[in-house]
Specification:
The complex is a heterodimer of chains A (about 750) and B (about 160). Chain A has three domains: about 140 residues, Aldehyde oxidase/xanthine dehydrogenase, molybdopterin binding domain (Aldehyde Oxidoreductase, domain 4, 2-Layer Sandwich); about 190 residues, Aldehyde oxidase/xanthine dehydrogenase, a/b hammerhead (Aldehyde Oxidoreductase, domain 3, Alpha-Beta Complex); about 325 residues, 2-Layer Sandwich (Aldehyde Oxidoreductase, domain 4). In chain A, about 25% of the residues lie in helices and about 25% in strands. Chain A is globular and about 85 Å long. The longest helix of chain A has 26 residues. By secondary structure, chain A is of the alpha+beta class. Chain B is of the alpha+beta class and about 160 residues long. The mean pLDDT of chain B is about 95. Classes of the chains: A alpha+beta (about 750), B alpha+beta (about 160). Chains A and B meet through helix 1, helix 4 and helix 17 of A and helix 2, helix 3 and helix 5 of B.
Chain lengths: ~750, ~160
Amino acid sequence: MAGGSTTTVGHSYPRMEGRAKVTGRAEYIYNMRLPSMLHAKVHRSPISHGRILSIDTSEASAMPGVHHVITGEDVKKVLPEPYYGPAFHDQPILALDKVRHFGEPVAVVLATDPHIAETAAQRIVVDYEELPAVFDEVEALTSDVIVHEELKPAGTFADLKHLAGKRDTNIALDYHLQHGDADKAFADAEHVFEHTFRTQQTMHTPFEPMVALADVRNDHATVYSSTQGPSFVRFELARLLGWPESNVRIKTAHLGGGFGAKVYVKVEALAMALSLIAHRPVRVALTMEEQFYTITKHPSTFRIQSAVDKDGKVIGRKCEVWWNGGAYADIGPRVTQKSGFTAAGPYDIDNVAIDSYALYTNRPPAGALRGFGIPQLVWAYESHTDIIARELGIDPIAFRKQNILRNGRPQAVGTIVKDGEFEAVLDGVAERMNWNRPFDKGSGTKLRGRGVGLGFKASISPTTSSAIVSVNADGSCIVYCSTVDMGQGSDTAMAQIASEVLDIPIEKIRVVNPDTDVTPYDMSTLGSRSTFHMGHAVRLAAGDARDKLHAMAEEVGMPEGSNAPLPELFIRKFGMRAGAIVGSANYIPEFSPPNYDTGQSTNATPFWMIGATGAEVEVDTETGQLTILRLVNVCDIGTPINPIVVETQISGAAVMQLGFTLTENMVIENGQLTNPSLADYKIPGFFDMPDTMENGYIDAVQENGPFGAKGAGESGTFGVSPAIANAIDDAVGVRISEMPITAEAVFRALREKQGKPLEEN
Amino acid sequence: MGGQKKTIGFTLNGRRVAADIGVHQNLTEVLQEEFGLFGARESCGQGLCGCCTVLVNGIAVTSCLSLAAFADGADITTIEGIADGETLSAEQDAFIETGALQCGYCTPGFILMTKQLLDENPDPDDDAIMHYLSGNLCRCGAYPEILKAVKLAAQKRKAG
C-alpha cells in the first residue's frame, strides 16, 4: 500500500473543524447541559490511606437546594460490585471501607445549582482511622503497607490471570523478558556500567477537564463523556450494570485535549451510578485541581546495567523497572509490559534481561500519558548510553550507530524489525545539528553543550478498529468511526482517506462524532494507533463502498470509465435522489502473543514508532539556570497522511515533554499534594520554548500501513529528556539522573562536583 | 448562593442584553448559562490559562475571575462576536491557515489576545508577540504555529 500518486492523502489540509474552533462554536462535552439535570460535586479524601469509620452527611443534606448526598454504600445498593478498571477491578466508584490515595472520591452532593453542591460537599464530615502509607515505588516492593488486601485482575488480559486472589503484595504485574544469556554477557564483558534513573509524577492537564453527563432511564443509559475510548466505556458500564452493550450509549464530541488522561473509565461510572440513584440526568464535571487526583503519569525507577566488549559493542543489558502505579491499577500493568519490552533501547543487543514491575502505592492512580511509559524508559536508557559513550571516549552518535537496531534484526522481544528507520532518524538529528562541525562550548559562567536521545515504541497490539462509510445520493459521504478527535486531527485524516479511496472531494465528507449507538467499535484513541488501525478500517470500508458503487454502475449500464457523476448513478438506480451505498470493515493486525516465561514474540507489533531529539543548551554555572538554545526533533512516522498536522504533532509532543523534563512535578509533602493547580504546577508557556526548534520526519514508508502511514502522536516526546540531560553533561560535566531538571538540580550537581555540596532541604 | 440576585444590562457582541444573575456568579458562567456562549471557557479556574478571555470595554480580561455583577453597563465582546457575519476576522483566518490550533480549547483566548495586540501594535516582532501572549497557555504546545499565526494576521490586517 505504498503512497503512489494520491490526490488527497499526503497533502496538507487545514483541520475540518478549524472554523468551529476559531469561532468558539466547536462542540465539547463540557459545554453540554441536559434538561432537569443535577450537578455533582465530589467530597474527596484528605488522607492517603485510611479506614472510613463514619460519614456524616446530615449537615450537607440539610442545605436548601441539595437533592441527594451519596456515599459508596449507596452506590453498592444499586450496583452490588461497584469496582471498575481495565486491568484490575480494583477501583470503587466511591470509596468503600477504605481510602487509598489523597483526593479519592468519598461522597457526592447532587443539586440543581453547582455552587450549592460544592458548598454542601465541603460540609460532609468523614471520620478516618489513618493508616501508614507508601508513596515510593521501590519501597512498595517490600513495604509492610499493603494498598489492596487482595488482587482482583479483570480477566481481560491473559498475563494477569495468575495474580487473581493474590494477597499481601503491592505488585500488580511482574513482567520478565529473556533474550539470549545476559549473565554470560556480563561475565564476558570488558566494561560493565550500572546506573539508576528516576522520573517524577506528572499530570496531563487537558484544558477541557474530564466530564460526563449520564442519563439512566429504565433499562437504557446514555452517557455523554469527554472520553478517548467510547467503546471501552460502553463495555465497562454495561458490565457494571449487567446489561447488554446495546442498552448503553456513549457519545463524545471534540475533546479539549486528552493525552491519555481520558482513556478507560474516569468519571463515567460515577455519573452513571448517580443518575441511576437520582433518576435524573447528572453532570460530573471535574475542575483542573480534581484532575490531579484522577489520573497521572507513572513515576518510575529504572536500574540499568550494560555489558560492553573491548570494541564498544553492547553485548548485554539488564533492566529493572519499577512503575509507580498509584492506588488503582488503571492501565498501568499494560504500561509495564507493552512498554517494558523496549526497556533495553533501540539497540541490537544479543543478550537482554528485563524485569518490569507495576506497583501499587498511595498516590493518585497512574495510567497512560503520551508515550505510555516510553519517555520514562528513554530517559534512562539514553542517559545511560550517553554516559557509556563518554566514559569510553567514543562520540555519542558514533557509539549509538555502532549498536543501533536495524531492519532485519530482532528486537529484544524477538520480533524482526521491519520499516524501523532508527539510523535515518538519528542521522536526521545529527545533520540538522551539524554534529560533525565544531561546536561553540561557551566561556566563563555560560557554558554550552549538546546531546541527543533516541527512543522507540511498539504499537499496543492486537487491537481492532471498525468503520462504516456511507455514500449519499447527492455524492456526499459520511464516515462513521469511534476514533475521537482530541486535537490530533484524526477527523481530517479519516476524511482524507475516504476522499482518496472514493474520489469524493474532502469538502463533501463528514466524519461523525463517536456515538456507540451509531459509530462501530474501536479499541480506543490511544497509543498513536488511530492513523494505522482506523486508517485501515476507513480505507477498507471506503473500498467496500467503492466496489458496491462500481457494481451498481455496471447494473444500471454505466460501466467503469463512463465517468458519470455519483448523483446521476443514484438517480438511475433508485429513480430519484434516494438510497445510500454503505461500506464497512473491521481491521485487526497480525500478532503473536508473547511467551509467558521468556516474553518472546515473533510478531509483537504491527509497526515501530521512532523519535529522536537533539538539544543544545547553555548552563549558567552560577545559578544552574538552563537555556535550551535549540531543540531538533525528527521522527519516523512512515508517510504522512496530512503533513502539516504531523509536524504539529511532533512539535506539540516535544513541547509537552519539555514541560515534563524541566518544570512539571507533582510535589507530595506529608502525604499531601502541595501543587494541584496551574499556579504551582508549571506547564510550558511561550517563554519556555527553545530559542529555536526544528521538527521533521524522514522519508519513509510503512509498508503495511494505510498509504504508507503509521502513528505520529507520541514519537516527538521520546528523545527530549535525555537529549537535554546529555547536553548538560556535555556543557558542565554533571549528570542529572532524576527528573525534572530544575535549575536547583543542576546547581546542586555543580556544587557536588566542586566538592561543595549544598545541604538537603 | 441561590440567594442574592441582581439584574444587569450590558452590550454583548454589539447587542444590548439583560440578565438576572447571582451576585456570586462569574462572567464565564453567566455567558454560558444565560447566553449560550461557550467560547469563553473555564479551565484552570485561576486566571492563568487564558481560556476564559473576553474583551470588556475593549480590554481582555479573564472572565473566570470577573464577577458578572461588574459587567453591568459594560461593552463585552466574546470570540463569537469578532467575525463579520460569515467572514472570519484576520486573526481567525490566520489561526486556521497556519495550523495554530489542535484541541481548540485555548484558541478563542489566543485569538482575542492577538486581536488586542494587533490593535495596539500592528507590526509586533517575536518578542512582543511572546510577551503579549505569555498569559495564555496551550497544552497541545502549538506555540510555534501561534507565533506564525499572529504574524500572518498582522499581514492580513495590513492588506485590509
